[in-house]
Design a protein that fits this description.
By secondary structure, the chain is an alpha+beta fold. The protein is 21% helix and 36% strand. β4 and β5 form a beta hairpin.
């Protein structure tokens, strides 16, 4: 699993090559490092603990989170977690804490309808019966007034529209108010840095050429030294 910690900056829109408008959410990636690696032998489960700082160069921690991973051994304490592991047009999931709405009634919280306001009705915005006849208790899960919002929400199947070293544009809306901290998850393990195959082949060919030149120079030196050695041996024999 791939992951980063970011800060929601707000929504805007961008245009693709065909001129279509795409609503996106701007997310600033917080600088993060691995602070602890947990394995099944030491902690009973596999995870990586990440510390995200408020901004680049800051020592103030904005968020400390754990992420379950299958192979924690590939992480080391102090490793930086950044956007290099993600790519454009990749599908991700975003987790955040939704906006808090305080105490809300059933109409706002669950979309109940209002009752009649005329003919002596006393049930305009009340929730109505909660089924107290049988089983003479409130059934678990009954929709009633209560605390609305401020809960952990995960939005899946969002697309990365664009990204750079410090900013990422994610299609659609993500949970949480502006300046809130969110987590972005990607499928698969952490992506390795892209390898330039042509550059590697060119480097290998250059190294091979240098080795061949060095061997040729050594052979030439050996050939030049051979006659001198023969002359010395001849003089000794005489």
């Amino acid at each position: 699993m791939k992951f980063i910690i970011g800060r929601k900056l707000g929504m805007t829109r961008v245009f693709d090559d065909e001129g279509r408008s795409i609503p996106v959410t701007k997310v600033a990636v917080l600088p993060a490092v691995v602070s602890q690696v947990k394995t099944k032998d030491t902690d009973g489960y596999k995870s990586v603990q990440i510390k995200a700082y408020k901004f680049q160069g800051s020592e103030k921690v904005a968020k400390t989170s754990e992420f379950r991973v299958e192979n924690p051994g590939r992480y080391k304490i102090g490793d930086k977690i950044g956007l290099k592991q993600f790519k454009k047009d990749e599908i991700v999931a975003v987790e955040g804490v939704s906006k808090g709405k305080g105490f809300a009634g059933t109409i706002k919280r669950h979309g109940f309808k209002r009752g009649p306001e005329t003919h002596g009705s006393n049930n305009v915005r009340e929730p109505g019966s909660i089924g107290g006849g049988y089983p003479q208790r409130v059934v678990l899960g009954r929709r009633m007034p209560g605390h609305m919002g401020h809960s952990t929400v995960t939005i899946k199947n969002l697309r990365i529209v664009d990204l750079d070293d410090e900013m990422i544009l994610i299609s659609g809306a993500i949970p949480g108010p502006v300046k809130s901290i969110i987590k972005v998850y990607g499928s698969g393990e952490v992506a390795e840095e892209e390898v330039d195959t042509e550059a590697l082949l060119e480097k290998a060919a250059m190294e091979k050429m240098l080795e061949a030149d060095a061997e040729a120079k050594e052979e030439k030196k050996a050939d030049e030294a051979a006659p001198e050695t023969a002359e010395v041996e001849t003089e000794k024999s005489e």
